[in-house]
Design goal:
Rossmann fold, alpha/beta, disordered C terminus, 238 residues, globular
Length: 238
């Protein structure tokens, strides 16, 4: 029996170099295709129910198909994540699209996957990626540092209302947002998990570690230096 196609799922978290990774996927897409690794772009569904591939390398709409509807995320608050009356049916459509159009290994990136926690979300996750061997890839920061950066990002986006204290706006020291063990439990031991701080200390960027996780031949890899996004002192901070 043929082995299932591998799907490398970059789950974030937010504020751990994800913009750099998604920029890399955009610029290195032809290189990765030659390495038999298909870069999945985000998918939208038009009013007639037809699936359309977008130009986005942050696949937040795919991720939001799984997320519990009551969770207010930045893209939901900005009106960029449509809701569907029957998300399970849409998820099956997306799975059918992926299985029909991807014949090699693949990579999909969206930080919003790091918000997944519940049993219902896990059930939908299994439907979405049925037929693939999913290998999650995640980067994790020290809780206090990450929470500071996340709060600043929401303030920058003008979303951090001081009256909010739940969901993504729970900035308490024990917030569910920094319970990284829960994320790893959700995605399982087959995941490839790295410390953001240790990665930057050793490599100056998350990109070398991310590329190594994909297992591609780096001989003809495009120069990674210009790909850093939202940088500070030469280090990716997004």
């Amino acid at each position: 029996m043929a082995q299932p196609r591998r799907l490398f799922l970059h789950i974030g978290k937010h504020k751990t170099g994800s913009s750099s990774i998604q920029k890399f996927l955009q610029l290195a897409e032809p290189f990765l295709a030659r390495q038999q690794c298909h870069v999945i772009r985000d998918i939208e569904i038009d009013p007639m129910g037809n699936l359309q591939q977008t130009s986005r390398y942050n696949c937040f709409q795919i991720a939001h198909l799984l997320l519990r509807p009551e969770l207010q995320t930045p893209v939901r608050l900005q009106g960029r994540a449509p809701s569907y009356p029957d998300p399970q049916n849409v998820i099956k459509q997306v799975n059918s699209y992926l299985t029909q159009n991807i014949k090699t290994d693949a990579i999909l990136s969206a930080e919003a996957f790091s918000f997944l926690r519940t049993a219902q979300e896990n059930r939908l996750y299994q439907i979405l990626f049925q037929g693939f061997q999913v290998i999650p890839i995640g980067f994790f920061r020290q809780p206090e540092s990450w929470l500071n950066s996340w709060k600043q990002q929401l303030q920058k986006m003008q979303l951090a209302n001081p009256s909010y204290n739940q969901g993504i706006f729970d900035f308490s020291p024990e917030t569910w947002l920094v319970q990284d063990s829960d994320i790893k439990d959700f995605f399982g031991p087959e995941g490839i998990y790295h410390s953001y701080e240790e990665t930057l200390k050793n490599y100056g960027s998350v990109l070398p570690v991310f590329v190594k996780a994909l297992g591609v031949d780096t001989k003809d890899l495009p120069d990674l230096a210009p790909i850093w996004e939202n940088t500070s002192r030469g280090m990716p901070q997004s």
